[in-house]
Structure formats: structure tokens, C-alpha cells
Amino acid sequence: METYDFSRATHYAVSIFLIDKQRILLLKQTRSPYWLLPSGHVEDTELPHEAAVREMLEETKLNIEILENPDEKSRTKIATPLPNPHHTLMLPCRDKRDYNMVFTAKVIGGKLKIDSESQEAKWFSKEEIINNPQVGPNTRHHALKILEENPSL
């Protein structure tokens, strides 16, 4: 198994599992042979969950609501709780490494239209996620878990 040098500079990124009618939205981009989640880097002036909302709007023109909620019990006079990501990953990205915070979300508005980064957008059912070899193993694992955790979406 090939390993990656994780001593490179760390950047912060987000990815979003968007759920609608028990399907997950994935994007086909020229940079990968796999179907990918909408994703992008967190800007210096934004919080991770804000970046997720912005990236989804930029890449798909869809307005979303993040499903993860902040732990309000941790609120103090100086600490504001943020939504905890569904999970996190460390991923190689060109000359750096990305600490990727993965959120789940639902659509609350907009009409699907991809930007120039993507060639295609497709809603994948559970069966399509299982059977499509261009859905990577990590995406497949988490997509199936997320669909199981959210049967009403």
C-alpha cells in the first residue's frame, strides 16, 4: 500500500454528503476517475459549516441546511459551540494535506446546476452507490452509513 507524506502544510477543507429522497449527490470532475462529494477549502474568514454551505451553493446552486448540530451544553461566555462534522479525514492535496471536515446536509432551496469544476452531477441511490465502481470505497462506506442513519431524508 502506497503511503503519503503527511508532514506537509495543513489546509482545512469541507465535504458534504447531501441527502435527498434517500439519495446522495455526487459530482464527476476531470481531476478524478471517481464520483466526488461537493467540497472545497475553508476560507480564513469563515467557519467550517459556513464553508460547507458556501461550497455547495458555488458548486451546485443548491441551498442547504447542515444536519449536525452544535453541542449547546458546551456554550460559555467565551466559547461558542459549532456543528461537529459527521467525520473527518486527512487527505493529500497537491503540495499540502487537507484536514477534511465532512458534513451531512439536506436541500432547502435552489435548482441543481453545476459549475465549471464539474462535468456532471448525479443523485445516487443506495444500490447505485454499492454497484458503481467509480464511487470510491471511502465515499461508499460513509454514504451507506449516512443513508442508514437518516432514513427519513
List the helices and strands and how they pair.
Elements: E1 10-20, E2 23-29, E3 35-36, E4 39-41, H1 48-60, E5 62-66, E6 87-93, E7 96-110, E8 118-125, H2 126-131, H3 137-149
Oligomer: single chain
Alpha-carbon distance between the termini? 37 Å
Average pLDDT reading: 94
Shape: globular
Tell me what portion of residues adopts beta-strand conformation: 35-45%
Describe the structure.
This protein is of the alpha+beta class and 153 residues long. Helices cover 21% and strands 38% of the residues. It contains 3 helices and 8 strands. Strands 1, 2, 3, 4, 5, 6, 7 and 8 form an 8-stranded mixed sheet that branches. Strand 6 and strand 7 form a beta hairpin. The N and C termini lie far apart (37 Å). The mean pLDDT is 94.
Give a short overview:
This protein has helices spanning 48-60, 126-131, 137-149; strands at residues 10-20, 23-29, 35-36, 39-41, 62-66, 87-93, 96-110, 118-125. By secondary structure, the protein is of the alpha+beta class.
Features:
single chain; 153 residues; alpha+beta; eight-stranded mixed sheet; 3 helices; 21% helix; 38% strand; globular
